[in-house]
Amino acid sequence: MKLFNQKNDSVEEVKQIPFKLERDIQELVEKNTDSIFNLLFVKSELRVDKYRIDSLCFDQENNSFVIIEYKKGSSYSVIDQGYTYLQLLLNNKSDFLLVLSQHFNKVFSTNEIDWSQSKIIFISPSFNSFQKDSVNFKNLPFELWEIKRFSNKSLIFNLHKSTSNESIQSLDNSKNTNLISSVSREVKVYDIEDLTSNISQNNLDKWNEMVSRLNEMEGIELKPKKNYVSIIIGGVSFKTVFYLSFQKTKMKIRIIRGVHNPDGYKGENYFTIDDPKNVTIKTQRTLGNGSTQKFYEIIVDNDFDIDYLMFLIKQKYNNINN
């Protein structure tokens, strides 16, 4: 890949600037975890037991911990370190809760955290083919991101995506079978079928029709979670268009308006919808840092007009893209 800056009718090549140290990547990401990954940065260089975690973050959308590890070079196993750190998290919940409570100045209990959505993010200038192949399973709670820096101050984050339908549990002869099984009893990566298995056929047809229309919108991706699907605009920033949860015969959609901070400040691109049929309901929830996240809620049943639904959804989509 070659990258150029255009100046009138001429082009100038943009050179890649390698990172000299892992710490350079770490400092950059830790200052921007919200913008890059939609995560709250909690603590750097956290020591638990005999291990040191590079960056501990918190996912407010899922109330779960995310560990970020930074790498240069390829002399390590993604599978070994990933599952070891997840087991460390699950075996030392009180230590992580204490750090989170100190960060927010608020006491968190074990049942306030969704441990099943715990995740490891690896960030490196490059991963070799062995490392990429080792995570080519459909249900691993890991993400591999390659980072590139360029002379025009641009950054590229590229997510390595699995192409396999095989489960990590199929590795019965792996030396890490016990470790994987232990973690997998608590941590689960969900897919769409997990969420739609018990809904009515009419509801499933409505969902499939919606997905067909969403696929016409550039950059749309579906991210299944434990209790819902995040519909996002793809890319490193993970800008959420809406959340969708399934009921037996209906779907509940929550379009994010934005965040009100405790001081009354509204977050960037606060969204107001044009809803002439008045089908949306205003709702909200309180986040761990005391801010209030506000939504427009829509209940979609068999009779809901899909054209009108897409009219509402596209407003949020365009708001993010502008």
Question: How is this fold's topology laid out?
Answer:
Blueprint (H helix, E strand, L loop, with lengths): L2 E5 L2 E5 L7 H9 L2 H5 L2 E9 L2 E9 L4 E7 L7 H14 L1 H12 L14 E6 L4 H6 L7 E8 L5 E6 L16 H8 L7 H5 L4 H14 L5 E5 L4 E5 L5 E8 L4 E10 L20 E6 L5 E9 L5 H16 L1
Parallel strand pairs: 5-6, 6-7
Antiparallel strand pairs: 1-2, 3-4, 4-5, 7-8, 9-10, 10-11, 11-12, 12-14, 13-14
Helix pairs in contact: 3-6
Describe the structure.
With 322 residues, this protein is α+β, with helices and mostly antiparallel strands. The chain has 2 domains: 3-184, Trna Endonuclease, Chain: A, domain 1 (3-Layer(aba) Sandwich); 192-321, Yope Regulator, Chain: A, CATH 3.30.1460. It contains 9 helices and 14 strands. It has a 6-stranded mixed β-sheet with strand order 3-4-5-6-7-8, with helices on both faces. A hairpin with a 5-residue loop joins strand 13 (281-286) and strand 14. The relative contact order is 0.10.
- Biggest sheet architecture: 6 strands, mixed
Measured by DSSP, the beta-strand proportion falls in: 25-35%
How far apart lie the N and C ends?
Answer: 27 Å
Radius of gyration: 21 Å
CATH topology of the largest domain: Trna Endonuclease, Chain: A, domain 1
Q: What is the share of helical residues? A: 25-40%
Mean pLDDT: 89
Succession of helices and strands: EEHHEEEHHEHEEHHHEEEEEEH
State the helix count.
9
Global outline: globular
Low-confidence stretches are none
Helix and strand composition category:
alpha+beta
Strand order in the largest sheet: 3-4-5-6-7-8
CATH architecture designation of the largest domain = 3-Layer(aba) Sandwich
- Would you state the CATH class of the largest domain? Alpha Beta
List the domain count as a whole number.
Answer: 2
How many strands appear in the DSSP assignment?
14
